[in-house]
Structure formats: structure tokens, C-alpha cells
Amino acid sequence: MGFRDVEMPDGTIKRFTWHPKYDPRYPAFNQAPKCNQYFIDFQKCIWKKGEGYKPCDWFRHHFEHVCPPTWVEKWNDQLERGVYPSKQLLKWQAKYPKAEPADE
Fold first, then answer.
1. DSSP result, 57-76
2. pTM of the full predicted structure?
3. pLDDT tens column, 13-36
4. Which of 11, 19, 53, 64 is most buried, with most CB under 10 Å away?
């Protein structure tokens, strides 16, 4: 469980208690598979749609609240070095072209 700051229509920031909802794909107590899948889904989303695509935040919020921070740091480091151990992600990246960086 964590907190999420949301900008309200009047410009104020309101803090909400937030946690991922029940996911029927992962009914067991062990949340490691759920954590890994949300991380991979986030990587797929930003690969396909780009870093600034807001719907990708849904996956980011979920893996940030389910995964231990040390795992996320390790996975991000592995992605930067090109040695992330996921055949699923590698096949997906080979199948789809990477999104062009958004011009700001």
C-alpha cells in the first residue's frame, strides 16, 4: 500500500491511499509472478507507446507497489545493460518497433 498524489481540477494536490486491486490471475499469497508481469507489461507499454504515454502509468504504479525496490533497481540495471532475463520481453521487442521519442 502506498500514497498517490493527484492534481485536482482546481489545481490543488490531494493525497490518496492507494494499493493494487485484486487480480484474479494471481490468487496466491506469493506476489512475485504478479510483480514480474506488471514490470514486463510496463516495459512493453513504454516500448510500444513511448515514455510519455499516460496509460503506461497504470502498470508502473502496480509494479512499484507490489515489487520490492531492490528488484526494480536490479531489473532496470539489467535493462540498461541489455541482459534482462525475459524471453517474453525480448520476443516482444523483436516483434514490434520501438516508439519514436516524443518531441516536446
1. HHHHHHHHHHS-HHHHHHHH
2. 0.68
3. 888 776 667 767 666 677 788 888
4. 64
